[in-house]
Amino acid sequence: MTFPEADVILGGPVVAQLDAQGQISATLPATDSPHMDPSGWSYTVSEALSGIPTGRSYNVLLPADKPHVDLADIAPTDPSKANYIPVVGPEGPRGAQGASAYEVALATGFTGTPADWLASLVGPRGATGPRGPQGPAGAPGKDGAPGKDGAPGAVRTVNGHGEADVVLGAADVKALPVSAAGTPGGVAQLDDTGRVPAAQLPPASSGGAVQSVNNKTGAVQLTAADVGALDQAAADARYVQPSAVPVTSVAGKTGAVQLAAADVGALATTARGKAGGVAALDGSGDVPLAQLPPITYPNVWYPSDLGFVAWNADPAVMDGTTPNSGGGIGDRPAPGRIYYSSVVVRDTVTVSKICLHTYGYSGASGGITSGSYAGLYTATGTRLATTADLSAAGRYAEEHSVGGGTTYLSLTEPQTLAPGVYVLAFVLNWSTAANTPLVASIGQGMDASGKVGAISASRPPRFCMSSDKGNTALPSSVSWTGSAVTGICTRYWMALAA
Q1: Alpha-carbon distance 218 to 212, whole Å?
Q2: Spatial distance between the Cα atoms of 279 and 302, rounded to a whole number of angstroms
Q3: Which residues pair with 487 in a beta bridge?
Q4: How far apart, in whole angstroms, are the C-alpha atoms of residue 104 and residue 123?
Q5: C-alpha dist (Å) from residue 6 to 11, 270, 325
Q6: Pair type for strands 495-497 and 310-311
Q7: β-bridge partners, 20
Q8: Measured between alpha carbons, how far is 98 from 108 in angstroms, rounded to an integer?
Q9: Residues 144-153: contacts with CB within 8 Å, 24+ apart?
């Protein structure tokens, strides 16, 4: 045989010797390899086994699509028949379903139901087998139910007292009596808001440095005798020792006694800093600011007195005539310029509106155009929320009253604010000056400086405005120390409302 493309010539038989397991193997060219000369041929297998006079001889084809062939699978079973080449045929049709075991039993003479037949398969019980090895230990079982309480034991002493019927006072458990709350020499109470009531605060003019303690000055160290008390040794000598008299009850209780603060006329530690409890002291020994009531002064108006949460100034300082309104009341904001003003929030509160005071606004065409907003910023200049575009009908209410009125501009989402400094902002765009809202400013506030004090990235100015005009949105963040804002501005009155 020749393979022209591979320059290979094969000839002669291939002899394979049986190995120690009686097996042979050989690698041969496929009988249908392309370009092989001759073609259309087959292999002749001749068996020559010791002890068998006449071995078999038969022809086989080795197609290339079956690279591994077991000779036992393709050798003819009867050497007297003509040689053949095994070919795998198509899968035959599915045969009929055979009878079940029960049906076979019926055919061979069994009578009865399927249950009877199944029962007949069970033979007699066999003899007990030998005991198997012990298995591994199982998982621990669940804990049993708690046992009943034992009989109460006798109390011998309570806080050093050994009388038959012990009655403890607040001092015995190093507590203050309930009667000490809100009384001279006691402790301050907290009202329903968690603050010390005004009646328990000292007058604003009182106070001063301590001059002496029990007639001692300097770095005073008091002893028990200085305050009319017994030291530990004297108290032990004067009073009955715990071992002398067994205690049979404590505050009217027997058995396994558990006392609470109320049992000894004391306040629980959980009452510290809680509404209806007592004031806590901070690390400096002072009542925290959050537990003090708001400090108010007579004849002074606060934002809450007029329904606001915070404002940048008392509205009593609003101006009347400003240069920018041509001699009339109110001021016409420059189109596209952003005006900022800081406010202080004293308590945690939820707000939903930015407020301006408008002296007049007809709502006529061109008075407010697209790109007009109000918004809320943190002290570091991060925007928290804005209104929707104020050019839509009804979002900036018309104002026709003499003296004007408060304009409430609703944020798209309410904001819950912690105590601190926040910045309010607004920008109005317009095309017709005569129809523009006239907004109240503070104390002839045009071209006044708002950058007073140590302004920083986290300490915004009281008032400022954007350096440029033409803005149609409020920026997502503002740098109070950068060139984007200027302190020479019109100081508009602004407020926050719930």
Answers
A1: 8
A2: 26
A3: none
A4: 20
A5: 15, 98, 104
A6: antiparallel
A7: none
A8: 15
A9: 149/256, 152/254, 152/255, 152/256, 153/255, 153/256
Tokens in use for 237?
A: 């000598």
Other beta carbons within 10 Å of 62:
17
How would you write the chain as a 3-class SS string?
CEEHHHCEECCCCCCCCCCCCCCCCCCCCCCCCCCCECCCCCEEEECCCCCCCCCCEEEECCCCCCCCCCHHHHCCCCCCCCCCCCCCCCCCCCCCCCCCHHHHHHHCCCCCCHHHHHHHCCCCCCCCCCCCCCCCCCCCCCCCCCCCCCCCCCCCCECCECCCEECCCHHHHCCCEHHHECCCCCECECCCCCCCCHHHCCCCCCCCCCCCECCECCCCCCCCHHHCCCCHHHHHHHCCCCCCCCCCEECCECCCCCCCHHHHCECCHHHECCCCCECCCCCCCCCCHHHCCCCCCCCCCCHHHHCCCEECCCHHHECCECHHHCCCECECCCCCCEEEEEEEECCCEEEEEEEEEEEEECCCCCCCCCCCEEEEEECCCEEEEEECCCCCCCCCCCECCCCCEEEEEEEEEEEEECCEEEEEEEECCCCCHHHCCEECEECCCCCEECCCCCCECCECCCEEEECCCCCCCCCCECCCCCCCEECEECCECCEEEC
Token pair, residue 156, equals 């011998």
Instruction: Tell the residue number behind the tokens 């301050």, with chain if given.
Output: 188
Both structure tokens of 112:
């009865």
Output the pTM of the full model: 0.46
Residue 461 in tokens: 């100015």
Is the Cβ–Cβ distance between 255 and 152 less than 8 Å?
Answer: yes
Tokens of 355: 């407020």
Rounded-to-10 torsion of CA 188, 189, 191, 192: 140
- Asked if residues 318 and 439 have their Cβ atoms less than 8 Å apart, the reply is no
Mean pLDDT by 10 residues, the chain (498 residues): 66 79 82 81 81 77 86 70 51 84 89 89 85 86 81 72 78 82 82 82 62 84 86 80 70 85 85 82 79 74 94 85 56 94 94 96 93 98 98 94 94 96 97 92 68 88 94 97 90 95
92: Cβ–Cβ under 8 A, 6 or more apart, which residues? none
Its sign, for the CA torsion 110, 116, 121, 127, is: negative
In this structure, the strands spanning 8-9 and 2-3 are antiparallel
Whether 289 contacts 420, CB under 8 Å: no
Q: Which amino acid is at 38?
A: P
